[in-house]
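Morning!

This is the sequence you dropped in the shared folder:
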Amino acid sequence: LVPRVNEEGRILATEVLEANGAVRNLIRKNEVQQIYSIIQTSAGEGMHTMNSSLLRLFKEGIISLEQAMLFTARQKELEQLVARETHVRAFESSRNGPGRQRANASTRPTG
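The structure's back. Tokens below.
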């Protein structure tokens, strides 16, 4: 549950995995590290990643970029999605010194 930007409360961000044939096969072969790529490429089957959910909520103005970055386990991927989908730079690393990055909370999507 991610805090909303302009109102009280939180909103659900989700990751959906359906146990289809490809997923079952990866589990049988003990190649579970590849399941994430199946989720990424199976939107037509109703699957989606946490990052795609966070990106959608950010683009709709429901959550801030700072909150999206706090709720993802794959920050680099979300940064790239945000830059590609909204033309917003997700991080301002120069302000925080080498190796330290901070989400730009005031940034709003432009598309």
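Headline: Residues 75-86 form the longest helix (12 residues).

More detail when I'm at my desk.
O.
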